[in-house]
Write a structure and sequence with these properties.
There is one protein chain. The chain is of the alpha+beta class and 748 residues long. Among the domains are: 219 residues, no CATH class; 287 residues, Transferase(Phosphotransferase) domain 1 (Transferase(Phosphotransferase), domain 1, Orthogonal Bundle). It has 22 helices and 30 strands. Strands 1, 2, 5, 8, 9, 10, 11, 12 and 22 form a 9-stranded mixed β-sheet that branches. 40% of the residues are buried. The N terminus and C terminus are likely disordered.
Length: 748
């Protein structure tokens, strides 16, 4: 449960004195975002301020002695004093305090926000690692906190830092706030470096910044910004009117009520909110919820459902529309006689409601509620064509501990403890780098805010199943679900453990496909352009090798002619089935007989490293590279070797169908990609049936569960777990990476 003593997150994040993001050197990153003029920023995202109101505010500041023809009086006086006293030193927050006091003076008690200058305190919000520091925050006058406020913990004030570090930090804080607070749709930021000011805008579809303007020469810009956000409505500040933070009925802490259509749902448990911690993207938050039957007296329904809150491209179908389209077209595009349309719901998570969130129109004050889209919060405008770019940090990526290989994918099998520990640190740096690099988009696509209510269909595939016959049965059910999709001309494009949900009803196992947001129809109409490749989608460790590399790997040799053109890369049916293979192999490296997991998990950890941390060896497994296969076999526990044989046969089937498909170069491969192999599903199903006969029948568990249990027992005996600061071994690295994979941290 989130800490209950947390006030509201700040309305804007004003950053001028901060520390760089932990884990990497800020000067070593080089992502860039769009840079626009103040006038463009004002037109696109700031609530309007009349000329009279701006003029009156400037006049009031002059009359109070805060402003004159040269700029901000107190700041200029301090600069003069420093010039006369060479040893005079004023902390940055103290220096700028008169500025924000002046700005507060033009914000009356009826304003929506006020500026709080608390550089030595950490503010709090929901989520892990939820404290953060900003020098000045704009806070709501009317708090929406539902519990006692915790103003934060003391920390030392810092001196001047380089501007580039400030820019990175304001992005970091915005990322944290947007990820931690479900009530936020977009937010503003401000950075100051001596007399240079930039304004920032952060949303799920657009991130941009103004060109530098001078604090003194362009004082009216800062005053306009202050009045604009100071008297803006909560909608205009980026709050979501359809989400409400309340105190849980049992007083245990804050929970959220989401409006979906004409119904309301209260969160009871987060399923995943990790992807919301990246600024740009779909940012899904998924919760278990109960329907709110009545507010007064408060009454909840008894059936647990699942709510998904996320952003999709404005021109994309919703998941419900995709699901309905698949169901409607089963066996109409590709025929599989053995499919029973009446059992469709047994293989796909049921969706009860799917809506586009409605908010106040920011372009027409008299209009009814409109869909929450990029077009709305950009006030009907668009960014200028060929905008300049602002580099967040100059230079190329370098690490505090440079890797000895070219990629984190290198094998861990021969590393010392020191080397293994270094790789864990390197992984953390790469994650931090990726978060900033995620902002470096050449163009922005408009998005629309959606919510889905679906059934609680169980747990992720890898978490639910605990014996190999059941795991193999689950793979067969997943295969049938994919057969339904493919018969309708659709591919899923994101098959992973997390998107396959399992539930046991007595002796009956149910396996259902979830998350259709990336699903795509490839038949009967093929992709429109043979020159444009598909965008890469999927969870990296279950992603087909070709998709990850964005190229075909099994093409026949072609004669070079003047008319030959490069092939664009497109996702096909075989790629979905290859993801099923990687779920199979993942289980082989993570579901061990209890004796193996308890006594000697290191060999299995090394096998895991070979297949999921080493891209070359993973490709070698799919390609049937015998030298790599021999190394892999040597690490397979004896009890699992018969199943491993069938995993290799599964890989052979996938490889053969890749080759068969790519051999069809006439007609062009753009048509061959839609080739359907009806016999393939029966072949794979038979292979899994045979595997069940020879499969190890005992209970299997994940090594990390044994490791956790052992550590807890050890801590209990010693009374001290050494603060968790233990030397990392190779298997510890694999264990951590396995958790990262299961949680999806490999998926950008």
């Amino acid at each position: 449960m989130a800490n209950i003593y947390r006030p509201d997150t700040p309305r804007i994040c004003i950053q001028s004195l901060t520390d760089p993001i932990p884990g990497f050197r800020a000067e070593n990153l080089a992502p860039s975002i769009l840079e626009i003029s103040f006038d463009c920023f004002k037109r696109l995202v700031l609530p309007d301020v009349s000329e009279d109101k701006l003029k009156n505010a400037v006049q009031a500041l002059c009359e109070m002695g805060h402003l004159n023809g040269n700029g901000w009086v107190r700041l200029l006086e301090e600069l003069d004093a420093q010039a006369q006293e060479s040893e005079r030193e004023v902390k940055e927050a103290e220096y700028f305090a008169p500025l924000f006091n002046a700005l507060n003076s033009i914000l009356g008690e009826d304003s929506t926000v006020f500026f709080s200058n608390n550089p030595a305190k950490s503010l709090w919000s929901e989520g892990d690692n939820s404290s953060y520091i900003a020098d000045v925050n704009a806070l709501l006058r009317k708090s929406t906190s539902v519990t006692s406020k915790k103003q934060g913990m003391n920390s030392n004030a810092m001196r001047w830092l380089q501007l580039l570090q400030n820019n990175v930090k304001v992005v970091s804080n915005a990322t944290h706030i947007m990820g931690a607070d479900p009530t936020r749709r977009f937010m503003f930021g401000l950075t100051i470096d001596r007399t240079n000011i930039r304004l920032w805008f952060f949303s799920r579809s657009h991130v941009f910044v103004t060109k530098i303007f001078d604090l003194h020469n362009n004082a009216q810009y800062l005053i306009y910004f202050t009045l604009s956000i100071g008297y803006a409505s909560k909608d205009e500040l980026g709050f979501d009117p359809s989400v409400e933070r309340i105190l849980a009925p049992d007083k245990s802490g804050p929970v959220y009520i989401f409006k979906v259509g004409d119904k309301e749902y209260m969160t009871t448990e987060p399923i995943t909110v990790r992807k919301a911690k990246s600024l740009l993207g779909r940012a899904p938050r998924i919760f278990k919820v109960l329907e709110v039957i009545n507010r007064e007296p408060f009454q909840l329904g008894s059936i647990t459902q699942v709510l998904k809150d996320y952003w999709i491209p404005e021109d994309s179908p919703t998941e419900l529309e995709t699901r309905d389209s698949i169901r409607t077209n089963v066996n109409k595009v590709n025929r599989l006689e053995w499919l029973d349309i009446n059992k469709f719901d047994d293989y796909f998570v049921k969706i009860y409601d799917c809506v586009k969130v409605l908010v106040k129109s920011l372009t027409d004050p008299d209009a009814d509620a409109v869909e929450d889209t990029s077009s709305n919060f950009l006030r009907g405008g668009s960014l200028p064509f060929n905008c300049e770019r602002f580099t967040l940090v100059a230079s190329t990526t370098k690490y505090l501990h440079p890797p000895t290989t070219n990629s984190i994918d290198g094998s861990l099998t021969s590393e010392s403890e020191t080397e293994a520990e270094r790789r864990i640190l390197l992984a953390q740096y790469e994650i931090a780098v990726a978060q900033l690099a995620n902002l470096d988009w050449a163009t922005y696509g408009s998005k629309v805010h959606c919510r889905v209510i679906s059934e609680d269909a169980g747990e992720p595939f890898n978490q639910k199943l605990s014996d190999w016959p059941t795991i193999l049965k689950g793979l067969q059910l997943l295969l049938t679900g994919l057969a339904f999709m493919h018969s309708a001309g659709f591919v899923h494009r994101d098959i992973s453990n997390g998107n396959v949900l399992c539930r046991s009803d007595g002796a009956v196992l149910m396996v259902k496909l979830n998350d259709l947001e990336y699903s795509k129809c490839i038949q009967p109409d093929p992709p429109q352009s043979s020159l444009v490749s598909d965008i890469k989608t999927g969870t990296a460790y279950f992603m087909p090798i070709e998709v990850k590399q964005a190229e075909y790997l099994f093409l026949p040799e072609l004669e070079m002619t003047p008319t030959i053109v490069p092939y664009a890369f497109h996702y096909n049916y075989v790629h979905d089935l290859e993801s099923l293979l990687w779920i199979f192999v993942f289980a082989l490296t993570s579901k061990l007989p209890e004796t193996v997991a308890s006594n000697n998990p290191s060999a299995q950890d090394q096998l895991f490293a070979m297949l999921f941390l080493d891209a070359v060896r993973r490709q070698g497994f799919l390609s049937g590279n015998q030298s790599m296969v021999l190394v892999q076999i040597s690490n397979v526990p004896q009890q699992l070797q018969p199943i491993w044989t069938y995993a290799r046969r599964f890989a052979l089937q996938i490889r053969q169908h890749h080759i068969k498909l790519q051999a069809q170069t006439n007609p062009p491969i753009i048509m061959a990609e839609t080739t359907f192999f009806p016999e393939f599903y029966a072949q794979l199903n038979k292979l899994l049936d045979e595997a069940k006969i020879v499969a190890y029948k005992g209970k299997v568990i994940e090594p990390r569960i044994v490791k956790k249990r052992t550590q807890e027992e050890s801590a209990g005996k010693d009374g001290n777990d050494d603060g968790g600061r233990k030397k990392l071994k190779v298997e510890d690295c694999c264990w951590l990476w396995r958790i990262l994979i299961e949680e999806g941290f490999d998926d950008w």
